[in-house]
Design a protein that fits this description.
By secondary structure, the chain is of the alpha/beta class. The chain has 17 helices and 22 strands. The strands form 5 sheets. It has a 6-stranded mixed beta sheet with strand order 6-7-8-3-9-10, with helices on both faces. The chain has a 6-stranded mixed beta sheet with strand order 16-19-20-13-21-22, sandwiched between helices. A 4-stranded antiparallel beta sheet has the order 2-1-4-5, with helices on one face.
């Protein structure tokens, strides 16, 4: 009798002759949370897709309860009790909670019609067994990200899942929502469910996981008990080197005010937002998810123009009503959701980078391919984008490399004000360090940076000053010396104003 519910032995997978998995081994025990850790591009997603039947390995064996199995597709893996919840959730927005849980598997009454009474009763019983409270008839589009995840988990257990794979489940959650999710994960673990947990937030792994398997460049590195390793051990195993400074912030003397916002407001989103941003400064904006930080950024960039208040650029009052106007004024905006707003996934690297500056490569209405190709190649090279070539589709790249493309795209506009919304969301420690080093370099060269982040270590490590938002308005502002994790959390959860500009 094996101690493992799932074993993968010597998993190897190639795409177009390129080996993305090389003899990777992984084991999972019943009732454990097993973290899967590695940089973007390390092969984690491919390994998960092998586990769930999306991809079939070119070499290697899969054992379930000690018996050899193979999955021709995802349906077969689900029938074996394996379910996955990905970072990009897959609910049907116009179906309600109960319908999403049993979509494609609705209970039928006589005559082949859906038995709605049984569907809602079964959905209610399932949510109750998980300790989750939701309105069964609420449409999925009106649910929070955390609530959508709960529905995905309920859907997984409606097919009697014994193995649950969670890919970056906390990347868009508030602190309270993360705590709720962790309580559910612990409950599932106690009931014997085996959980594969993927996260780039190392502090979460120490709080939740029992074991961790580290991957690097498509290969297996090691499996350790979390209680036997430190944060630095994990970073060294993951990136193959020691990262001495994750937050390489340079001391830069701030220059003149380049962006001034006075009493900015947008009905239903935020109100009375005022602050200044200086040349060479990194101004951090903290707060819980939904506090209004992204809405402020989108208003400044003209995506959702403000309905009241003033914006000044270099001392001159402007009315920004479109992104095109913002770009002409020297602003650039790297959005939070790179998949939806930052990239066109179905287009190649070169086309994504050149999008905001196409006019530079056009002559009499015709695109000069060679000029565009040279400029975008240089931009990708400068950002150290890892890809087969510049014609590779953006959707085929890891999250970290996609983020580098978005940064390369906006830096090609030569902005003087850069707005970064969650600049390191969903990317690995090595790439985070590279992005932070780039931010510090840009600030030292005189660029003004407004950085929105939900990661407090990033806010504290990279900001010259910190603003905190709560429920659509600024509740606090701190200097770098004044800012602490406790003060920021307090200001983000209580309607108080403290600190100094």
């Amino acid at each position: 009798m094996t101690e493992y519910i799932l074993e993968l032995k010597n998993m190897t997978k190639r795409f177009s002759g390129v080996e993305v998995l090389h003899e990777v081994c992984f084991s999972l025990r019943p009732g454990e949370v097993h973290a899967l850790l590695g940089e973007n591009g390390a092969g984690k997603s491919t390994l998960v897709k092998v586990m769930t039947g999306v991809h079939q390995p070119d070499k290697g064996e899969i054992y379930l309860d000690g018996k050899f199995v193979s999955f021709a597709d995802t349906r077969e893996s689900r029938q074996m009790g394996i379910a996955a919840i990905y970072q990009e959730l897959s609910l049907f927005p116009d179906l309600d909670v109960a319908e999403n849980i049993f979509v494609g598997r609705q209970p039928l009454a006589a005559g082949g019609r859906i038995d709605w009474r049984k569907l809602y009763a079964d959905a209610g019983n399932l949510l109750e067994s998980l300790g989750v409270r939701l309105d069964l008839k609420q449409k999925a589009r009106s649910l929070s990200i955390a609530q959508q995840q709960m529905v995905e988990i309920a859907r997984a257990f409606s097919i009697n899942a014994r193995i649950l794979i969670m890919d970056e489940p906390t990347s868009s959650l508030t602190l309270n929502e993360v705590a709720d999710l962790f309580r559910l994960v612990r409950r599932l673990r106690e009931e014997g469910t085996a959980i594969v947990f993927i996260s780039h937030r190392l502090e979460e792994l120490f709080e939740l996981a029992d074991r961790v398997t580290i991957m690097r460049d498509g290969s297996y590195v090691d499996t350790r008990l979390l209680k036997d390793v430190t944060r630095d051990d994990l970073i060294r195993l993951m990136v193959g080197r020691t990262i001495t400074d994750l937050f390489p912030k340079q001391d830069v003397k701030s220059g003149e005010v380049v962006l001034k916002v006075e009493n900015l407001a947008r009905a239903g989103s935020f109100r009375d937002v005022s602050f200044e941003l200086r040349q060479g400064e990194i101004l951090g904006m903290a707060g819980l998810v939904g506090a209004g930080r992204t809405n402020v950024a989108r208003a400044i960039f003209g995506v959702e123009p403000a309905t009241a208040g003033k914006i000044q650029i270099a001392g001159r009052e402007v009315a920004i009503t479109s992104p095109q106007q913002a770009i002409k004024l020297g602003l650039a905006y790297v959005p939070e959701d790179r998949q939806l707003h930052g990239l066109i996934p179905a287009m190649p690297i070169t086309s994504n980078i050149s999008l905001p500056t196409l006019f530079k490569y056009a002559q009499r209405g015709w695109l000069q391919d060679k000029v565009e190709r040279k400029a975008t190649y240089d931009a990708a090279l400068q950002m150290e984008v890892r890809a087969n070539n510049i014609w590779q589709m953006a959707r085929e790249l890891s999250g970290g490399n996609q983020q580098k493309i978005v940064l390369a795209k906006w830096l090609s506009t030569k902005p003087r004000i850069l707005i970064l919304d969650e600049p390191t969301r969903g990317i690995d420690v090595g790439t985070k360090a590279a992005v932070h080093a780039l931010m510090s370099k840009l600030a030292s060269e005189g660029m003004a940076i407004l950085m929105i982040s939900s990661e407090l270590p990033e806010i504290l490590g990279m900001s010259d000053r910190v603003l905190v938002m709560r429920e659509g308005h600024i509740t606090a502002h701190f200097s770098r010396a004044e800012a602490t994790q406790e003060k920021i959390i307090s200001a983000a959860t209580q309607a108080v104003t403290s600190g100094s500009v």
